[in-house]
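Action item from last week, closing it out:
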Amino acid sequence: MEAAVVQLSGEVGTYLAPLMVWATDAIPRVIGALVLLIVGWWIAARAKRAVRRLLDGQTRIDATLSGVIASLVRYSILIVVIVAVLGQLGIQTTSILAGLGAIGLAIGLALQGTLSNIAAGMMLLWLRPFRVGDYIDNGAVAGTVKEVGLFASELHSWDGIFQFVPNSELWNKRIINYSRLSTRLVDLAFAVSYDDDLAKGQEVLRKLASDDKRVASDPEPQTFVDELGDSAVVLRLRVWAANSDYWTLRRALTERGKAALEEAGLSIPFPQRDLHIKDAPEKLVAKAVA
């Protein structure tokens, strides 16, 4: 019995000895790799925030680029950390680079849409059809640009809706940027009666525009007869103003224009039609007239 125990102990020791040797060498490596990964991840996050704060304080760097540059710094640090962690585990650097190349090729083939978003993001940053703070509309989405990232852009709509839009959807479509230019045309239409004095109506609208300090003097405000409608004549008022004053000025001129025309004796008629009945019985005609 004792001989069997001694034999079993010897066999266990034979198997455990290489395991202990491996554990003695591998455990410190694994612990070191974990510590390196945690510290590297923390440093990458801190570096991203530091770079973002630094770039936000620079007036020469567009705010659109701040988020992208900060993300690139973080990802670059993470790549270096991952390579260092794998090296800590005993994997050769050449094998790491070859493996990363193969993984990158496989990921590129599998994520062609994601790569197209990255390419679109780089083109948006290069050509800058819009910047952070601009209000844009491409037919599918509309909102104020809050951030342009490598993969997608963040937009906030006027009614408080968060939109996360892939860059390819912004790059491959026509973009209308309402904030890019400093001035904007305010185009208003006022309907008056055919019996009204059209010259007087235009003079009233011109005076209304000239009395508002938000209206630009160059180009001068324009008023003209734009349309002979079915039941009214349409007078057009066109003025230029600062982009930031567009909506407030538009609403104010619309309200004041109606009041000024009515005060000057012009009327804004309701839609109307003249009805002519042919070859109808006299009773039916009399009833329709009544």
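Closing note: The chain has a mean pLDDT of 81.
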